[in-house]
Amino acid sequence: MRRLALASLVTCVFVTLWGVVSAEKVCYFSQEPDARQPGRLRWVMPGSKEDRCACTKTRPGPVNVQPVRWSHPPFYTDTPIFTDDQEDIHDYFDCHDPCQPNPCRYNAKCEKDGDSFKCDCERDIKGDRCDKPLDCLALYRARIRESGVYTIYPSQYPEGLQVYCDGNRWIVFQKRFDGSVNFTRNWTEYQDGFGELSGEFWLGNEKVRQLTSKGQWVLDIEAVYDGTSKSNQQRTWRWPFRVEGDSYKLVVEGFTDGWPFLSIDTPHAFSTYDRDNDDVNGTNCAEVEGGGWWFGQCESPQDSWGNLNGEYSLLGDPDNTDQEYRGMKWNVTGNVIVVRSSQMKLRSFTPRDCERLYDFGVKGNGTYTIYPAGKYKNRMKVYCDMDTEPKGWIVFQKRFDGSVNFTRNWTEYQDGFGELSGEFWLGNEKVRQLTSKDQWVLEIEVVYDDRLKSNKNMTFRWPFRVEGDSYKLVVEGFTDDLPFLSIETPHAFSTYDRDNDDVNGTNCAEVEGGGWWFGQCGSPQDSWGNFNGEYSLLGDPDNYTDREYRGMKWNGTGNVIVVRSSQMKLRRFTPSDCQRLYNVGVKGSGIYTIYPAGKYKNRMKVYCDMDTEPNGWIVFQKRFDGSVNFTRNWTEYRDGFGDLSGEFWLGNEKLRLLTSTHRWALRVDLVDDQGKTEQINVNKFSVKGNDYTLGRDSPASDFPQFNQHKFSTYDNDQDDEEPYNCADRQGGGWWFGACSDDISYSLNGKYHDGGLKWTGWAEHVIVKSIVKCEMKLRRY
């Protein structure tokens, strides 16, 4: 065999080892004189640092050798290794891959970086090797779903904090399940924590305080308990919360009526048997109840129920009908509850609105902190209505007893006034900020008396927004059910010191009282619409029976309305069509904004028919007086023309977009000049392709002529008849097949003095002129 050159030779060979074929690189060692040591030969390692290769340990023969890094020092021999008749002495080596095995933790991606590597960490995980997760939520995002003990690295604990993660994003700070750990501990033990994270434990008040000192956190309580009627009941409760101060006060947001727990209205300090911080003079609730807890009045059932750190009994209890129980016993009127196990957990969560809070599991009405602009930006205190469907409304006005004066100046209405737990106005600037992005629905709830009946309840909903420095109210749709404001005439907000109404020389806010979106303050509509006017608490001689009334009085023709209470609310809502609007409670026919392609994409203004059953049709063609010319070119039919409040064609491109997903029904409503009506229904209606081909799946008697026909206009002939252009001959754009003078079925043709010339489709024969037609579609 030819002797090797002094330079290294690297080649690839395939070696079969134990039946497995693998690719190996061969490492040929060469020799050269050592300039520093005359007479000695130096073995030269092949490869280079650029190759990031590592030779195997020096050993001629098979491949089962241990790899070493390229930086293995050179070695020497006094005699030549190679002779003319000697086999090449060689060894095998592997190229060193710094990412094999993956040195990065928590499913991070490893990338080569020269001779080394760098780790691409998942969100909220740091460290050179992605080994420092911020919290249990960061581990969950990194697809670490196994419950257990982990080290997390919040900013308060740069050296790391050991916690128990439940595998579903939560940090557990209390766990009890068998009574193996005594929870009657002193202040220092509760402060520092006790027990083992793998068993029963209390993480420590100081750790919980540090964790919840930054950002927004949610408390989760899970309990398994037995009652007198049922065993092994399981319940979960959630509230935004924090622990603060040297006394480790627990502050819980929202309403806690579903669980006898503590409210943000009355935060309580933590107490132990050697540190009495409860609200009872002369009594230490921690001594009475056992364990450390946030006690209020320890003799109340609420405090007894709320203590999850009390004594865990392992024996039969003579007070419980001699029945053996294991757990924490809570005595409730007519019932004995035995809590078998409990877990208290916390997790970071930044809700942007009340809807997100509800979806997260926070179910109680009450005052909460939201972040409309994202993480920790523009923090806002709001009152959330979690009972009204769909759940999660932000209340921005509430009146029920007249305890708050609503005759306020511009600045007060701008910033808000009152208490969120009582009567209040949230503030025009907050409402403007909230509705400046996305789509929002306004709800007004009213309880009122009139001459016929007391305590009537009415609810109204419309898409809306508040915009600009004058806080203009823009309402979509038809508002005839309530004399309110329409998108056709948006009004600016007025107060007694800032007149923005439409009446010259008169300030409606001074006349009517309160701040409001006034138009003509002399009209009944404006009088009715003002929910911020004077709230009377006394008998009123002007009332038709001189009877006492409490509320806001609206004078209508032949009637007197007394509004007892009102609430104005808002909620995000992105409707994909008119049907979704109707289902959420928007009942008036009119012009609305829909998002057929999903959230905030391809926004589209449409006219919704909310009266025709089943309710919620998108009208795409309407003619009734001939005021709009329908002889239009291809581009105009593609984009749409006319006014949605009058005669119009919505646009072929919009039809194509709408019908590209889901199934759609077509309905055509016709009225002739004799008042006769006709209705045509088509299933699986669609418009497809760049030529806007019409598709349908109906019996032959309905819409038979137009299946699979392309749309034609006078400047784009796509009909089936040569050499004629049906659109040019009959006027208007349509899905023409063959055309002739005595077959007129296009509803977009010329509108004569008596209406449209139309012969009918199959059995739908109307020989008179069509004076009114509507084409509409609805998802099914």
TrEMBL record:
Domain called Fibrinogen C-terminal: residue spans: 127-312, 345-574, 575-780
Disulphide bond pairs: C121-C130
SUPFAM superfamilies reported in the protein's UniProt record: EGF/Laminin, Fibrinogen C-terminal domain-like
Keywords (A to Z) from UniProt: Disulfide bond, EGF-like domain, Signal
CDD domains attached to this UniProt entry: EGF_CA (cd00054), FReD (cd00087)
Pfam families per the UniProt record, alphabetical: Fibrinogen_C
Gene Ontology CC: extracellular space
Superkingdom per UniProt: Eukaryota
Signal sequence bounds: 1-23
Name of the protein in question: Uncharacterized protein
Organism: Patiria miniata (Bat star)
